[in-house]
Structures are given as C-alpha cells and as structure tokens.
Amino acid sequence: MQIQANYPLRNYNTFGLESTASYFAEVTSLTELKSILTDPEWKQKPKFILGGGSNILFTQNIDALVIHPQLTGIEKISEDETYIRLKVGGGESWHAFVMYCVDHGYAGVENLSLIPGSVGAAPMQNIGAYGVEVKNVIESVEAVSIESGETRLFSKEECRFGYRESIFKKEAKGQYIITGVTFILSKKPGLNVGYGDVQKTLLEMNVTDPTIRDVSEAIMQIRRSKLPDPAKIGNAGSFFKNPEISAAVFEKLKKSYSQLPGYPVNDEVMKVPAGWLIEQAGWKGYRQGNVGVHEKQALVLVNYGGGTGHEIKALSERIQDSVKTKFGIALNAEVNFI
Ligand code: EPU
Q1: Which of 36, 112, 243, 267 has the fewest CB atoms within 10 Å distance of its CB?
Q2: By alpha-carbon position, which residue is closest to atom 21 of ligand 1?
C-alpha cells in the first residue's frame, strides 16, 4: 500500500471540488487497513475516511491521512427458496451491486438504482429513494474501529437507522470505517411501485406486471430525467433533507399555499418536500458564477465546473434564509460539510 503526500481529491468527490489531502492511502484489504490503523507512526495522525465522496462538500484542504477504503467482493452467506444473504465489500460501487442483484433476480434494492457512492456509504446515511430505504434490506454492518483497528459487527438495531440517519452519522461519527454490509434480499419479490412517479413511468413503458428489472429501468429513467449526472455536472444529490413540521403548522401553511405537498410521518408530523419550498422561493435554475440550483430538481445544488465549496455553502445559506423567511421552515443539509 502506497501513502501519497499532497494528494488532489477533485476526482474523489462528486461535486468535483478542489481539495488536497496531506496524505492519501487507498486500502484494498482488511489486513492493509488494520496495519495502517495500528502502525505507531500513523496512529498519532488525524484520519479522514473518504468513500465514494457522493455526499460531501469540501470547503478546505484535509489536514489528515485520508483513507479511501476499496474493499470489494460479493459473498453468498446463505440461501433458501425465499431469501439470499449476501455480504458485500464496503468499497463496491452501490449501483454495480444493484445491477448484480437485478441480474440475479434478487429483489429489495432495485428502487435504489443509480444512486452514486459506495456500498459502505449506504448505511451511513440510510440511503433512500422511491419508497425504499436501504435499512429495509440490511441485516448487519461490519466496521473497523479507527482507534483500535478492531472489527465490530453492528446489528441492524445497533445501526439506529432513521431518515438519512444512522449511528455512524451521530454517536459513532468519525469512529468507524464500514468494511462490509450483509444484506437479506428476496428471491420472491414483492415489488414496491407505490411511489407516484414509478407507477406513471411503468405505464409509459407499457409494463403492467413489472419485473425487478422493469422497476430498476423505470427508476433509472426517472433519475436521469430529474437528477444531473455527477460525471457531467458536479453535485451530491439532494443537498437538504426534506423537513418535518407539525401537522398544525402544515394546516396553517396550507391556507396560504394550497398546493403545498406533504406526507404524514405520523399523526402529528408532516414531511414536506424541500425541493418544492426552494422552487417556490424562486431558486430553481438559479445560477451564480459556476454554482447554482439544478433546473429540473431544486433540491440539488450544482457545480458547473470551477466552483468552490465556499460558493456552494454560501448559496445554500441564502436558500435556507429565504425558505425560512417565506415559509418559517428551517432546512437542514443532508450533505456533510468538511
Ligand atoms: N418538487 C418541486 N420542485 C422541485 C423538486 C421537487 O416542486 O424542484 C416536488 C415534486 O413535484 C414532488 C416533491 O417535491 O411533489 C418530491 O419530489 P421528488 O419525488 O423529486 O423527491 P424529493 O423529495 O425531492 C427525495 C430524496 C431523493 C430521492 C427522491 C425519490 C431526500 C432529501 N431526497 O427527493 O434522494 O431520490 O425523494 O424518492 O429525501 C438524495 O438523497 O440524494 C436523493 C436524491
């Protein structure tokens, strides 16, 4: 394993932002990872774990040893007529894993097609799309402690999954490297096509009795039509979380904004789409210099090339202020600021 000094990270974050790591190491095995974490010299240095870089906003250089885990492999743990359990290396590409499942007829992750990032990052923020969250199919998460280099297995319950949340973003933040995820997938799929756009797209595709692959195709079509491809325009997907407000506040807002969409979380709480709020506040398609708000999905901030993390951060704060002023709703970032 090579450790490189002053390493450029532009190709390691989907916003395409410039940032330099003091040191950078790509690790491809558990042994390599443990040896670097327990090495007396490196043990003293601050460390930063960088997965697929698809949910990160660099506003500065990283004065640390940046570890880029690339542990790969898909291993069958067990299988019966109904289910299969797979252990997948944290460094596998998320979408490549989804395609593997679609090809083999394993259901459960098809709604999460085309999400950028790695398998190891998926549990970190409990990725979700089109009515499915990754926690639905996770059995356990294997992680290595940065402090001790020891492996720990987190059960699904111990991961404390919530909406774009897990223990790895909260109590255990910065303490573990996710090296593997065990999934339980179904061989007799009950597909989830309840999300409005999915049904509509399947109809347009003339599909009435969808297969796992049909659902995946429909999701990919929707995503391609709304979300910018990070290979072409720098972005990190949804920049903010969809805010939750009380049902009482929702009803009050409805009086002024009759079109306000909302989804009940429980009897007292409603989730409202941040994209709608941002669009209504006039930001959709807004551009300032090299950064802006995507023209087809206002929840996505973009770097057209050459923009900086500071510019994107400043834009995000202006958006937060204007949504707060117009609707009285606070937006919280989903993306991690560094
Ligand atoms: N909307 C607007 N204007 C916009 C964007 C959205 O009015 O510019 C409205 C839509 O018309 C719709 C509602 O907002 O009524 C919801 O929009 P959409 O279905 O596009 O989903 P979203 O709530 O904006 C969430 C996730 C996405 C995920 C989609 C689909 C969050 C923060 N985002 O977006 O996840 O792909 O649902 O399930 O929960 C991500 O996390 O990076 C991400 C892309």
Answers
A1: 267
A2: 273
Spell out a b/e string for 67-94, using b for 16 or more CB atoms within 10 Å of the CB, else e. Answer: bbbbbbebeeeeeeeeebbbbbbbbbeb
Question: In a mutational test of the pocket of ligand 1, which residue from 276, 277, 283 has the highest number of ligand atoms less than 8 Å from its CB?
Answer: 276
With contact defined as beta carbons under 8 Å apart, do 253 and 144 qualify? no
Amino acid at residue number 292: G
Q: State the distance from the centre of ligand 1 to the C-alpha of 275, rounded, in angstroms.
A: 6
Tokens of 272: 């409202």
Atom of ligand 1 nearest to the CA of 227: 44
Please tell me whether residues 91 and 124 are part of one structural domain.
Answer: yes
pTM score, whole prediction: 0.89
pLDDT tens for each residue of 262-313: 999 899 999 999 999 999 999 999 999 999 999 999 999 999 999 999 999 9
pLDDT, tens digit, 9 for 90 and up, residues 64-117: 999 999 999 999 999 999 999 999 999 999 999 999 999 999 999 999 999 988
Annotation marks residue 140 as catalytic:
no
Tell me: do 30 and 96 sit in the same domain: no
- List the catalytic residue out of 19, 54, 238, 316: 238
Q: Is residue 199 situated within a structural domain?
A: no
Domain that holds residue 118: 74-186
Active site residue 334: yes
Total domains in the chain come to 3
Q: What is the CATH number of the domain that holds 318?
A: 3.90.78.10
